[in-house]
Design goal:
This is YdbS-like PH domain-containing protein. Pfam families: bPH_2 (PF03703). InterPro entries: YdbS-like_PH. With about 160 residues, the chain is an alpha+beta fold. Helix content is about 55%, strand content about 25%. The strands form two sheets. The protein has a three-stranded antiparallel β-sheet. Strands 4-5-6 form a three-stranded antiparallel β-sheet. Helix 1 runs antiparallel to helix 2.
C-alpha cells in the first residue's frame, strides 16, 4: 500500500484557526451572557464560568496545538485506483477508498475557507459515507473532482462492457 504524499497548504492552517476562533468565541459569548442571566433565572455563577472557561481552554488547545498537529500529519493522494487519506498524530488512520466504490464527488466551500481560496473535496460512497479532504486550494479541489468523475465513468463503462 502506498503512502499519501500531498499535504495541506500553509493558508489552510490560518483558515482553521479563524474557524476555531469563531466557534469557541461563540461559546465564550454564551458564557459571558450567562453571567447576566444568573440573577434573573437564579442560576449559580459556576455554570457560566465553566462554559466560559471551557470555551477559552478549548480554543487555546485547538488554536495553538491541535491545529498544528492536524496540519502537519494530514496527507492525501488521489490516483486512478483509489483515494487515500491519512490523518492523526498519535493514532494514525489511513483510509483507502477504491474508485469502484465511489458514487459521486463534490466540492464544499464556506465563507471562511473560501476567503482563503480553499475548499473541501468530498468523496461519497455507497455504504461507508462521506470522506473529506478539507482545506485544499479550490483549483486543486476542482481538478480532483473532475479527474475522479472521469475515472468513475471509465470504471462504469468497464463494468457495463463485462456484463453485456
Amino acid at each position: 500500500m502506498k503512502k499519501p504524499t500531498q499535504t495541506l497548504p500553509e493558508n489552510s492552517f490560518r483558515a482553521h484557526q479563524m474557524q476555531s476562533t469563531i466557534f469557541y468565541g461563540a461559546g465564550a459569548l454564551i458564557g459571558i451572557a450567562g453571567f447576566f442571566f444568573c440573577d434573573y433565572w437564579n442560576w449559580p455563577l459556576w455554570i457560566p464560568a465553566v462554559v466560559l472557561g471551557l470555551s477559552i481552554l478549548c480554543w487555546i488547545l485547538d488554536f495553538f496545538w491541535l491545529n498544528r498537529f492536524r496540519w502537519t500529519y494530514f496527507r492525501y493522494d488521489v490516483d486512478e485506483r483509489d483515494v487515500v487519506i491519512q490523518k492523526g498524530a498519535l493514532f494514525r488512520s489511513s483510509i483507502y477508498v477504491p474508485m469502484i466504490r465511489i458514487q459521486h464527488v463534490d466540492i464544499k466551500t464556506g465563507p471562511i475557507i473560501s476567503k482563503y481560496g480553499l475548499a473541501e473535496f468530498r468523496v461519497h460512497t455507497g455504504g461507508s459515507g462521506v470522506f473529506e479532504v478539507a482545506y485544499i486550494p479550490i483549483e486543486e479541489a476542482e481538478r480532483l473532482c473532475e479527474q475522479v468523475r472521469q475515472w468513475i465513468k471509465v470504471d462504469e463503462d468497464e463494468i457495463d462492457a463485462k456484463t453485456e
